[in-house]
Amino acid sequence: MTDPWIALEAGADPSERARALHRAHERFTAAGTVARPVRPVVAASWRRSAGAQVSPDDTSAPVELADGDLGAYRAEHPLARVMPLFRELMGTFAADGRHLLAVCDTQGRLLWVEGHPATRRRAGRMNFVPGARWAETAMGTNAPGTAVAVDRPVQVFAAEHFIRTVQPWTCAAAPVHDPRTGRLLGAVDITGGDGLAHPHSLAFVQAVARAAESQLALLEPPRQDGPALRLSVLGRDEALLLTAAGHKLRLGRRHSELLVLLTRHPEGLTGDELLCLLYEDESVTPVTLRAELTRLRRVLGPDVLRSRPYRLAVPVESDLSTVERRLASGAVTAAASAYRGPLLPASAAPAVSRIRHRLADELRAALVARGDPDLLADWAYAPWGEDDLEVWRALAEARPTAPVLARLRALDQELGAGAAPAPYAT
């Protein structure tokens, strides 16, 4: 076979290949060895799936985004802008061929699944539905999950799927990238029966993905005041600044604090206002602050940081604003997935500390109110949540396993919280 990413070369017998793949899959799941005719890309994916402890006997994908979470997340996802194009290029093909058009994000979560109604109902029995996670780590080898894992177009046929209940299907998917930065955005997929095993199916989704990237380039709004910046400040003592050109700048702690505050005040801040927001020590002079701002201007460039008042002249998006925006819209799962830890945890700047505590408190309250055991566990087992008594209590309510109850009792004793509440007392 000339192209290792194609599942079935032209002229091959699908039935014979499917039987051979089934035997190879059974051998791998029993003994861990790979036999012909398994392609290298599939063999590598099987090994990753097994390493992630995916069971070939699983029956359905976990649903991670539902209702308001899904709607809010889809609305702000970059691929939402090219969904009309996907429907125009693939919608009729999917409906007429009894196939499905699917689009996933970089985590393999399905954002849209459209196509023939009967095929959608059949796929729904294995949770091939919007909001479900089809990453390799959740559902083993499959075209959308594998395409985002290896960042390559790939076709998966029959028993090449790692999970047995998915093996009646064939799919082809291609990754879609941000045309400016090259960042992976997700993948577009066509899923159906054996008819999709033809090499043309993979070429088709590749062409659709390229068309989507071209459309995204055309839809990109013109830059007015210079390149947009992306700021990462959650779970980091020092911010990481990504420029539109793809350059990464690691900022010092004071510069990190300044950028956080300036992004939250697009109208600008005076020197006196910045002094109050940044320094606990009232003896710090304006000269010290001006020196810091001068150094920051040299880092960012003279056209980015302006004065009188101090303000940013270009749009800056941050992971902090992403979490806040998702929380405000009720997208709790999406907010939790974007939260990488406390805001600049080593910062003692008064304003930064207030933002840090407020964000953590609001997200914690939303998680406790939601009561989802997986979301609560993600927080409880993270470094910032290991001593969070409120979350551990909520987790014990939602998932009263022995390790959770034991950790909660230990926290009660360590923090002097007194007797454990009845719901988790044993």
Describe the protein's topology:
Blueprint: H1 14-31, H2 40-51, H3 67-76, H4 83-96, E1 100-105, E2 110-115, H5 117-124, H6 136-139, H7 143-150, E3 154-157, E4 170-177, E5 184-192, H8 199-219, E6 229-232, E7 240-243, E8 248-250, H9 253-263, H10 271-278, H11 286-300, E9 305-306, E10 311-312, E11 316-318, H12 319-328, H13 332-338, H14 350-370, H15 373-380, H16 389-398, H17 402-415
Parallel strand pairs: 6-11
Antiparallel strand pairs: 1-2, 1-5, 3-4, 4-5, 6-7, 7-8, 9-10
Helix pairs in contact: 4-8, 12-13, 13-14, 15-16, 16-17
Overview of this protein structure:
This protein has 426 residues and is an alpha+beta fold. The chain has three domains: 14-219, 2-Layer Sandwich (Beta-Lactamase); 229-317, Winged helix-like DNA-binding domain superfamily/Winged helix DNA-binding domain (Arc Repressor Mutant, subunit A, Orthogonal Bundle), CATH 1.10.10.10; 371-426, no CATH class. 47% of the residues lie in helices and 12% in strands. It is built from 17 helices and eleven strands. The protein has helices spanning 14-31, 40-51, 67-76, 83-96, 117-124, 136-139, 143-150, 199-219, 253-263, 271-278, 286-300, 319-328, 332-338, 350-370, 373-380, 389-398, 402-415, and strands at 100-105, 110-115, 154-157, 170-177, 184-192, 229-232, 240-243, 248-250, 305-306, 311-312, 316-318. The strands form three sheets. It has a five-stranded antiparallel β-sheet with strand order 2-1-5-4-3, with helices on both faces. Strands 8-7-6-11 form a four-stranded mixed β-sheet. Helix 15 packs antiparallel against helix 16. This is GAF domain-containing protein. Keywords: DNA-binding. Residues 246-312 form the OmpR/PhoB-type domain. Pfam families: GAF. It comes from Streptomyces beihaiensis.
